[in-house]
């Protein structure tokens, strides 16, 4: 059993507060007014309200900390060493379609490094949290990434490109998928990157890869996976929080999945 630090307590409290509103709004999802932010990317009133709640909670509890938030963008703080990276509603499309699989994701970056993360599955009530050096936890259960070492036994999650993305991006995804479907037990596509990473930390998924995510989709999940003993990397060797091309798995499967992703990319480039 682990005792949550004051920092984690504050982050969990903010996530739960936002989750209360989201759960209410999810119940009335048909009545929500929806605006379109871009192709396939819906932003709801619920999303905005949840972000407001988190911003208010966290700035009261940790005055001066900066923020990177999906809707507000970057909010500079007076404290330049700490900033929260927040996705008030990860899995927006699930939310909009009445699919009960979405999360609040809150990370803290300290001195330029990811330091703590909370991912809250609003409908199941599961709180995943991790703090550097303290491990990753689901409530009071210590999380460990899966120990499977054979790709043939692995269940690997991903995210698919959708309408509005370039033909090249779709092509690359299909190449990646064809390399991995031929060698893995199964592929999953659940629609919330934050929860996908929490599932990797919990040893449910053996791996997860997706391209072009935003920092707020993955920041908290990265801390969860690392503290659960997993490896998180940028697929092409770039800067992870900038490109959002993420691969997370245990240390044995990581290089195996990566080699298939690289082979897929090479195949597309050679065509
Ligand atoms: P969201 O639900 O907060 O938008 C699913 O593949 C993941 O991709 C989710 O974490 C989702 O976050 C994110 N996502 C969905 N639409 C996106 C878009 N247009 N650009 C970037 N990320 C997106
Ligand atoms: Ca998101």
Task: Summarize the structure in words.
The chain is α+β, with helices and mostly antiparallel strands and 271 residues long. It has 2 domains: 6-142, 2-Layer Sandwich (Fructose-1,6-Bisphosphatase, Chain A, domain 1); 151-270, D-Maltodextrin-Binding Protein, domain 2, CATH 3.40.190.80. Helices cover 38% and strands 28% of the residues. It contains 8 helices and 15 strands. The strands form 3 sheets. It has an 8-stranded mixed sheet with strand order 4-3-5-6-7-8-9-10, sandwiched between helices. The longest helix is centred in the first third of the chain and has 22 residues, at 6-27. The radius of gyration is 18 Å and the shape is globular. Residues 35-43 have low confidence and may be disordered. The chain binds adenosine-2'-monophosphate (2AM) and calcium ion. Calcium ion binds at residues 87, 90, 216-217. Adenosine-2'-monophosphate is lined by residues 38, 40-41, 87, 89-93, 159, 191-193, 210, 213-214, 217.
């Amino acid at each position: 059993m682990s005792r949550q630090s004051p920092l984690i307590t504050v982050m969990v409290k903010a996530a739960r507060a936002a989750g209360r509103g989201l759960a209410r709004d999810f119940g009335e999802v048909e009545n929500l007014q929806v605006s379109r932010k871009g192709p396939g990317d819906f932003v709801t009133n619920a999303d905005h309200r949840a972000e407001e709640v988190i911003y208010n909670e966290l700035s009261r509890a940790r005055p001066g900390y900066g923020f990177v938030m999906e809707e507000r963008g970057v909010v500079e703080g007076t404290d330049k060493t700490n900033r929260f990276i927040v996705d008030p509603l990860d899995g927006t499309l699930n939310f909009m379609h009445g699919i009960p699989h979405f999360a609040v994701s809150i990370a803290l970056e300290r001195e330029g490094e990811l330091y703590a993360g909370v991912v809250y599955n609003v409908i199941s009530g599961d709180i995943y949290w991790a703090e550097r050096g303290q491990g990753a936890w689901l409530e009071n259960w210590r999380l460990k990434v899966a120990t499977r070492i054979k790709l043939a036994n692995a269940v690997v999650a991903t995210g698919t490109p959708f309408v509005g993305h370039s033909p090249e991006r779709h092509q690359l995804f299909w190449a990646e998928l064809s390399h991995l479907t031929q060698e893995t037990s199964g592929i999953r596509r659940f629609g919330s990157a934050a929860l996908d990473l929490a599932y990797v930390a919990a040893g449910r998924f053996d791996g997860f890869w997706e391209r072009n995510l935003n920092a707020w989709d993955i920041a908290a999940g990265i801390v969860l996976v690392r503290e659960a003993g997993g490896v998180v990397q940028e697929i092409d060797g770039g800067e992870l929080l900038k490109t959002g091309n993420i691969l997370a798995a245990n240390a044995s499967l990581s290089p195996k999945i990566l080699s298939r992703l690289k082979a897929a990319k090479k195949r597309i480039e050679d065509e």
